[in-house]
Every structure is written in structure tokens, then in C-alpha cells.
Amino acid sequence: MNPYFTSVEPEKAYRLINHGPATLVSASHDGIENVMAASWVCGLDFTPAKLTVVLDKSAYTRQLIEKSNKFIIQVPNAKQAEMVHYLGTHSKANEQDKLSHSDVECFYVEGIDQPFVSGCSAWLYCELIPLEANQRDHDLFIGEVKAAWADSRIFQDGHWLFESAGDEWRSLHYIAGKHFYKIGEVLDVE
Amino acid sequence: MNPYFTSVEPEKAYRLINHGPATLVSASHDGIENVMAASWVCGLDFTPAKLTVVLDKSAYTRQLIEKSNKFIIQVPNAKQAEMVHYLGTHSKANEQDKLSHSDVECFYVEGIDQPFVSGCSAWLYCELIPLEANQRDHDLFIGEVKAAWADSRIFQDGHWLFESAGDEWRSLHYIAGKHFYKIGEVLDVE
């Protein structure tokens, strides 16, 4: 286990995704794991913490989530950019070995039967709030964040450490094609 | 009129918000305008382009949108950070002169009765897709992007120009309190 894997207070979990990073969505059902990339992940509420995630009907991970009603949202970082892009452009529906091809390594946390992706900056364990019309009509899923963690080398005491951590820890912000931006410099207003 | 105010193809409008910037939400009804800041704005679909926005029940702008069924999502930039923070921490509900206090200037586009905030990097004109349960239970609003524009000094031909434009044009990514990050360097995968 990564010794820097540290619990984040639920009421501060929104800060892990508030700046709009590209994410990884992972889920498992009946022994089958998958991981996909998703940019359309967004805060929805503070207490209890909730978020939205858009999952296309073609996404294999969506099928797992519809069965398990659980998933993990990860915040990956710059050193994982190639992996994130691979996970966002290949589907397990037609590539059964997607995860091994993409160099994803998963780990598990006691009491949670969903896969966590190693090497990320943050993890939010969510339980689905099933809303069939949203899911069917808009591919829109709502999750309640039941627990969250971060790597303490990049997020500590409720604050990102982008200013002091290495460049490889910066979050990824996706535009289109093969084109990301890394998060940049801090700007504190007065 | 800003001579750099340039139409963006609807199918590329998602790129204006895909990287998760803090936004400004503006609306007008019956001659009353307002502008608020919102981080929880997220892509929902490509064609037709749709987005989600979370609007708290205490937000005055929400009342305007519920009446007009229309609104504008703006992508502000680093030179507007103080204004963005002011607009996100003051409500017209108890400060009638909020807009003049915050130095917001609005302009109008022919055929659209909603206010555009001057000096932003991008604008998405949306019509509300009313879904009462989402709005009531989750403060979650869905808009269809009917038209979009960008300042051609920072977004051109479907691409952000953060690499070459001045630092003052960088998008803002909000964490909490008075704490933003600017978007950073490009990262293109292979």
C-alpha cells in the first residue's frame, strides 16, 4: 500500500475535483474490473458530498456501474497522461485486455469492493443515486461520495500542493484529441 | 463591440468548458440582470451541445433563469479574478447594486435578450431544458448550447491559445476560499 494514501474529510472532498480535472472512473462487478477516462465529472453538493458523471451508453464501465451501483472517481496526474488517454480512447467492449494494455494497476481498500487505480493523486468512492430518466435520457449519473483519499505528497489538510510538488503531479485538463493542459500557477484574490 | 468576438461552431463549443474552468452565469428577466460565479458547470453532450450547471436555491440568478429559461455561461480569465470572486461571494438578493459594485459590464447580441459579460474569453448562450425534479432535488440545471463565441485572441479555429496569449488570458480553476489556479502548460500525448 502507498504510504502516502491519506483519508480526506468528506466535507472537503469537493476540492479534489473543483478545478475541473480529467478523471478516471473505475468499477467492478462480479469479478470484472474496468477503468475509463472521463472529463465530464463535476461537483453537485457539499454535504453530503455528491458529484455528477456523464457515461456514454457505449462505455463498458457504465454497465458495471449500473450493476454494482458503486464506482471510484480518480484524479490522475501528468505522469499518467498517456495512460489516461489510452483509457479514454479504447473500450473493453472490443478489447478485453484493455487494462493490461494500458499499464493500469489496481489496488483494493478494506471494505470496498471497487478497484482503485494506483499512482493517482486522489480517489473518491461513490455510491450511485439511481435516477433512471437522467441515466437513460442524458447519460447523467449522480454519485454520493462516501469516502475520499489523496496522496499526501500532492493534497494535504484540504489543500492541493501544486506550487511545491513536482510538475509530474499536476492535474490534467482535457480539451480534445491528444491535447491536455496541466494545471498551472496559483492565483489568490485579495 | 469587441472586434475579436467570434462565433464558435456549435460542435466545438464543448471545448470552451471541457478543461473545467470557473465560469460566470448571467441571465436577465423582465429588465433585471444578474451575474454569478459557478464552478459546477460541465459538458453533457456534443450534438446538440448541452451542459449542466448547479445553481443553489439562494442564487438570485437562478430565479431569473427559472423565469426566462435562458442564460449565458462565460469563461472568464485571470485579469478578471477579483471580479469573479466578488460575483461568487455576493448575492443580489441582499445587495441590489451587486453588478456595479463588482465592475461587471454587460453587452447584448442582436436577437438574444440575455446579458453577455465583457472581457471574458468565451460565451455560451443556453436555453434551459426544464427538468423539475433535477432542479428541485439537486439544484441541477441542463442547458442546450444554442450558440457560442470566443475572443479570437485566446480561442481560434477550435483551439485555446494559452501557450501564446498573455498570462492574463489564462482560465481560472477554483478550489475554495480565495484560492484559484490558472490553467498551465500544454501536454500533448503521443
CATH level-4 homologous superfamily of chain A = Electron Transport, Fmn-binding Protein, Chain A
Q: What is the domain tally of chain A?
A: 1
Q: Strand-and-helix sequence of chain A, N→C?
A: EEEEEHEHHEEEHEEEEE
Question: Averaged pLDDT of chain A, please?
Answer: 97
Q: Which term fits the overall shape of chain A?
A: globular
- β-strand percent of chain A reads 35-45%
The rounded distance between the terminal residues' Cα atoms of chain A is 40 Å
Q: Tell me how many strands of chain A there are.
A: 14
Question: What's the story with the biggest beta sheet of chain A?
Answer: 8 strands, antiparallel
The most extensive interface, with participating residues per chain, is: A-B, 50 and 50 residues
Oligomer: homodimer
CATH topology of chain A: Pnp Oxidase, Chain A
Spatial extent as radius of gyration of chain A: 16 Å
- Structural class call of chain A reads alpha+beta
Q: Are there runs of chain A of 5+ residues with pLDDT below 50, and where?
A: none
Q: Note the total helix count of chain A.
A: 4
Assign a percent range to the helix content of chain A.
Answer: 10-25%
Q: In the CATH hierarchy, what is the class of chain A?
A: Mainly Beta
CATH-derived architecture of chain A = Roll
